[in-house]
Amino acid sequence: MNLRQPNANEATSTFNRSKNVVPLSGLCSRCMDGCRGGCEIWLSSFRGREVLYPIGYGEMTTGADKNYPLDYSHLSIQGYAVGAKGLPKGVEAGSDTAIFPAVNTETEYGWKQKVKMRLPIFTGALGSTEIARKNWEHFAVGAAISGVTLVCGENVCGIDPALEMSKGKIKNSPDMDRRIETYKRYQEGYGEILVQMNVEDTRFGVAEYVLNKHKLDTIELKWGQGAKNIGGEIKVNSLERAQELKKRGYVVLPDPTLPEVKAAFKEGAIREFERHSRVGFVTEEGFLREVERLRKVGFKRITLKTGAYSAVELAMALRYGAQAKIDLLTVDGPPGGTGMSPWPMMNEWGIPSFYLHCLTYRFCEELRKKKIRVPDIAVAGGFSTEDGVFKALALGSPHVKAVCMGRALMIPAMVGKNIAEWIANKDLPKTVSRYGQSIEEIFVCYEELKKKFGKEIEKIPAGALGLYSYSQKFKTGLQQLMAGSRNFNLTTIRRNDIMTLTEEAAKVTGIPYVMDAYAKEAKKILSK
């Protein structure tokens, strides 16, 4: 099985000249002296480290395209002709009551003080990448009116051009203020805004700043993410900006203070710089101490996000998280999308999402059998549709409460934003204009939101309309899948509501193979 062809990909704007490619190396079967381009090795020969990263920073997101041996497509959802679990108390199950619009898609997370969401999904960490910054209003308002949690990712304060510091701590961060205030302006009691902290954020005092100025209830610690196993990264195309970020304590490459780098930038050979965050070093004592510190500072809830590290780190996150009584653990696997991660790393590191989530369930059950309560779990890593979310909830039941979705929740907001710009420029593509020529005609949810918000609808950005439209499609699709499996509340979804399509998937998941699922129950009926 050829899982991935290296050395050429649309993400890096590279390609093979030959129609025949060596599977292992990705090299053309006949590599010609004089080739004019352009595989990754060819491009690396004069652009060097630039080729590690997907092309188009600030204008795109990327997701690895490695074809893993198993993924969520190897599961299928069970359907039943009898029963109705999770109907409201006092409602008798029947054809007039057990209809799919009656399905409750709300979920909640938290150790003691719960956060409710209208849907079992929330955004990936939208942090210091340019695409997150410039589209923030669309993401934030869309998430708020959809009733889901929004994650403000790492390094937002640290890269704020208007950041004011005092004695090494944040005094004022206008961009962080904008991000929090935008979401809270439209929040309706569902979801929350989570601000992440990495090594630099902790040093800068991000937690104290967002608590004291914005009264946030929750803060998120970050061990890593599924897209890469190094710290957060962005690119900057200004020498002065690169020097400013280095002065703030970030790792900046190439080093913008070196004379030869300055000269290369002046000549145009170096056109951009990378800003990197540091990797953390996790210890049980250190983690528990930090959680306790944050609680004493005043946070009501502490959450943690971890990446696709080894089984050891997953066990650490679960066991330490249980001991610290954290409110949510997000387990993020590859190959989810991101604003900037090294392309080889996105494809070739970490436990793939499907396997990682299976391990998560297995470890949760080991702790449960020891009568140790585990934190509420969210999983992430390449999800985009309601069927995938249903499968994830079932696979990790009863521990998994929600699914974190990165690119799938960014796309609707960007589409909505672009539609508004196309209308303003009288440049609507036919793919959109067949539905109308105005915002009111194109967005199916417009009148619904206008009734709810009144004149305020004029202030809601078009990208938020896009995200809300997607969320309503997601809700209806999820309701249909749940009703078909006779689950009318998310809390009733169980592992026996899915089956595996291959025996290998059955071995990895512990979920019965399709030909074995409910075999005993079926045989009992046949034997009557």
Going across the biggest sheet, name each strand in turn: 4-17-16-15-14-10-9-6-5
Here the CATH topology of one domain equals TIM Barrel
How far apart are the termini?
Answer: 46 Å
Please work out how many helical segments DSSP would assign.
20
For the secondary structure, the number of strands is: 18
Find the structural class using helix and strand composition.
Answer: alpha/beta
Keyword list:
alpha/beta; 9-stranded parallel beta sheet; 20 helices; globular; 38% helix; 528 residues; TIM Barrel
What does this structure look like?
The chain is α/β, with parallel strands linked by helices. Among the domains are: 10-52, no CATH class; 72-232 and 277-411, TIM Barrel. The protein has helices at 40-47, 130-134, 136-146, 174-186, 199-204, 206-214, 239-247, 259-267, 284-297, 311-324, 343-348, 353-369, 386-395, 407-424, 430-433, 439-442, 446-453, 462-484, 503-509, 519-526, and strands at 75-77, 107-109, 115-117, 121-123, 125-126, 150-152, 164-166, 169-172, 193-197, 218-222, 233-236, 251-253, 273-276, 301-306, 328-332, 377-380, 400-405, 498-500. α13 (386-395) links the parallel β16 (377-380) and β17 (400-405). α3 packs parallel to α18 and α14 crosses α18. The protein is globular, with a radius of gyration of 24 Å.
